[in-house]
Amino acid sequence: MVELGRVWVVLAGVYLVLAGSLNVNEVGAAVLCGGLGAIWVWQIGRCGDHHLVIRASALKPLLTALARLPGETWRVGVHLMRAIVRGDVAGEDRAMTSARAAHCPLDGEGPQVAGARAIAVLATSLSPDTYVLRLEPDRGWIRVHAILPTDGRA
User: Fold this and answer.
1) pLDDT tens digit string along 37-52?
2) Which helix (H) or strand (E) holds 132?
3) Which residues lie closer than 8 Å to 86 by C-beta, 6 or more apart?
4) Phi and psi for 62 in degrees, rounded to 5?
5) Where are the alpha helices (DSSP H) in the chain?
6) Do the beta carbons of residue 142 and residue 98 sit within 8 Å?
């Protein structure tokens, strides 16, 4: 139940940050939405066969991806504008190594490995340049769709 309370507080806090104002109505909506979100997370966590355990240390790739988001958004936007003007094709399927894709663990079992894998896939897909298509553990690759060329030039 302590975990449910933590999720509730975090979701309510996120709501208040995104709301952009702090008044009685927003706080009430944050408490209500945070509570509903926490109940949803708790129910979803109980009904699946796969469990995730996300440690604080596993969040580092996600925080790094968030920090790089403004610069990457700019680079991808410039590249897409050039592709529109020139009539070029922007994007390709590409295989990435585990280390390049936010250190995504491709092998191993258990809730901690599954949690680290989920965070790594989210961090890799958060970039406006790439999103994960599939994991290929037998080859040691992560198949992604990327917009920028391999050298990263815009």
Assistant:
1) 888 887 876 776 667 7
2) strand 130-136
3) none
4) -70, -45
5) 2-19, 24-47, 60-86, 111-126
6) yes
CB atoms within 10 A of CB 53: 12
Q: Which two tokens stand for residue 95?
A: 């295989």
Query: From CA 150, how far away is CA 96, in angstroms rounded?
Result: 11
pTM: 0.62
Contact 91, 146 (CB under 8 A): yes
CA distances from 85 to 76, 82, 112, 149 (A): 14, 5, 46, 17
pLDDT tens for each residue of 122-145: 888 888 888 888 888 888 788 888
